[in-house]
Design brief:
about 20% strand, disordered C terminus, 3 domains, about 500 residues, Rossmann fold, Nucleotidyltransferase, domain 5, alpha/beta, elongated, nine-stranded mixed sheet
Length: about 500
């Protein structure tokens, strides 16, 4: 594109929201043909306007675009790039796959801004992300078709941003990583990181960084409507019947239809979800669920070598999962850390003291097997929890010999019922492990038979997601057995509640 350029056309409000979202990490998810690539190109151009002019009046940016293979790079992203920036000998170095052009961008007020854009196109192939991105000094990084890339591309790429332009040319005023992708399978890393916005930070770390970095801190996720929805985007630039034709072609491929036409998340690749009734749009709260001080704080515990505890409240027949206490092994996203009962009880106590210091403790539901089992050091789980959580009642969360079927049916009932028009179970978005368990981690394993067919096991696979999911089941079934007395407060707490002040029932100072 020589001479001057506009900021390209409007394709829809969700795409526009992505282009104008200047948080450090932003992603756009949409069906085929929804102008995701074009929106990323627009954002690269717009990012130049975020920079200060250099001494010569030019605003500079340098980007790297990463794709899985060079074949995909050439047939997809480069083809789109050259639609907007026609290839010339002056602006394209084919040996290095690098683009450079200086031009004017026409602003809404009719004035022109001089910008310089450098873009380095890289493909991963079978190389390590560290090797591909080493030494780059960038303004921004575009992960094209992000779900086809390994998360290491982001992890090694993010530190390369914010290094251009240099101070003598105005310094880097904005840096960022932009991502575009079709709806991924729910076990893909993009689902956890970009869709659920699980940044791995504690609330305290998040608040500190927000105070230091301001409104540009955080992850911005933008979900476009499905292609057959009445508000589908970029329809005016597509052939008539485009999505209807795709739906016909994908009729025998339901996962393709969900992901590429309806913009819905795909199924897990290695098992069948135990709770297909779980719908993140319905059962995950839009914002973090805060403690309601009018009601006690319940919790559910699953012991063993990789334990989990889920604090929740049971209000008007709705189970509200507020939080989760699980410890992941450092550097491993799918392996819980082993902890004994004493260490885990103390960790939970400290978590409650920090996050729920004024809560009235209710009931802690537990695996009935804990009553009879001990860990390798012969230390009784409940003994340590009862010692620290003195204000809580302790009840087993199972019945009928702790059979799993009643527990599963209890959770399914909450997922499918809507008391008072609200879901019977809702999860706070900070419960990342529980959400992953519902969507992809807690599954029935498929067994391949000798005749080439297969079937699913009758019980969920035992893995690290099964521990928090079992805890949820103990809490759900436990609530059924004592629902009529679950929210009874002590006389002292009831008086405090009437005054609008609920104190912790004998727990805040326990064990200290």
């Amino acid at each position: 594109m020589s001479g001057e350029a506009s900021l390209m056309g409007f394709v829809g409000p969700r795409a526009e929201g992505f282009v104008n979202d200047w948080r450090f990490i932003t992603g756009i998810m949409g069906p085929y043909g929804s102008a995701k690539t074009t929106s990323c190109i627009r954002k690269i151009v717009a990012s130049a306007l975020m920079q200060n002019p250099g001494p010569d009046g030019v605003r500079r940016v340098r980007w790297c675009v990463v794709r899985d293979t060079y074949a995909q790079l050439e047939t997809n992203v480069l083809k789109s790039w050259f639609t907007w920036f026609p290839q010339t000998k002056a602006n394209w170095n084919g040996n290095r796959n690098e683009f450079f052009e200086e031009f004017d961008v026409m602003l809404p007020d009719g004035k022109a801004a001089r910008v310089s854009i450098e873009v380095i196109f890289r493909a991963m192939g079978d190389r390590k992300a560290e090797d591909v991105l080493k030494g780059l000094e960038l303004t921004g990084l575009w992960l094209n078709e992000t779900d086809t890339l390994d998360m290491n591309v982001f992890l090694f790429g993010w530190p390369r941003t914010g290094r251009f332009p240099s101070a003598k040319n105005g310094g880097c005023q904005w840096r960022g990583v932009i991502c575009d992708f079709n709806a991924p399978d729910i076990d893909n890393w993009t689902y956890d990181f970009l869709v659920l916005e699980n940044d791995g930070l504690s609330d305290e770390q998040r608040e500190h960084l927000r105070g230091v970095l301001g409104p540009r801190f955080g992850i911005g996720f933008h979900e476009q409507p499905g292609g057959l929805e009445p508000d589908a985007e970029n329809i005016h630039n597509l052939p008539p019947g485009y999505y209807e034709g795709l739906a016909m072609a994908f009729a025998s491929k339901p996962n393709h239809l969900r992901r590429f036409v309806h913009n819905k998340f795909g199924a897990v690749s290695d098992g069948q979800p135990v709770f297909p009734e779980f719908n993140p749009d319905i059962h995950v709260a839009k914002e973090r669920i805060r403690l309601d001080p009018r009601y006690p704080l319940q919790s559910c515990l699953d012991g063993g070598r990789t334990p989990a505890l889920i604090p929740f409240q049971f209000i008007e027949n709705q189970m509200r999962l507020l939080d989760e206490i699980v410890i992941w092994n450092p550097g491993k996203s799918d392996e819980l850390q082993r902890l004994g009962p004493k260490a885990f009880a103390e960790l939970c106590w400290e978590h409650f003291a920090q996050h729920y210091p004024t809560a009235q403790l209710g009931t802690m539901f537990y695996d009935p097997a804990i009553d009879f089992g001990q860990d390798d050091e012969e230390e009784d789980w409940l003994r340590f929890f009862r010692k620290l959580f003195k204000g809580a009642k302790f009840r087993p969360g199972g019945r009928d010999g702790n059979r799993i079927e009643p527990r599963l049916e209890s959770v399914r009932g909450r997922l499918t019922n809507a008391p008072g028009g609200r879901p019977g179970l809702i999860v706070s978005p900070n419960c990342h492990t529980v959400i992953r368990g519902f969507t992809s981690g807690y599954v029935y394993e498929r067994i391949k038979l000798s005749n080439g067919s297969g079937r699913f096991r009758e019980k969920p696979i035992k893995n690290d997601f099964s521990h928090p999911m079992d805890a949820v089941q103990y809490g759900s079934l436990g609530c059924e057995t004592v629902a009529d007395i679950l929210n009874d407060l002590t006389g002292r707490a009831r008086a405090q509640q009437a005054r609008g002040k609920v104190k912790h029932g004998g727990y805040a100072g326990a064990g200290r």
